[in-house]
Specification:
With about 90 residues, the chain is of the alpha+beta class. The protein contains 1 helix and 5 strands; from the N terminus they run βββββα. It folds into 2 domains: about 55 residues, no CATH class; about 30 residues. The structure holds zinc ion.
Amino acid sequence: MVEIECLLCEKPIKLPKYIDTENYDGEVVCQECESLLYIKLVKGKLQKRRVKQKGFRRFSAEEMASLFKILAEKRKELLAEERKREEK
Ligand SMILES: [Zn+2]
């Protein structure tokens, strides 16, 4: 289990389940202060972490879920494209 501390409130951020801690490069929102952070995880280790937006607008749980779904899908698309390129 990868633990990431928020840069602003220093509370641990619970990573959504879809995040692949072996390889993740994207946003995560702190549940405590709702700041948007950019993180990069490689093999379960935090490589990069920076604040993207302080006090991220309060989204409802549904909005948040759909936002992350979009991000996750975009990521999948990118990975699929990368794979295609590698196959050629
Ligand atoms: Zn925070």
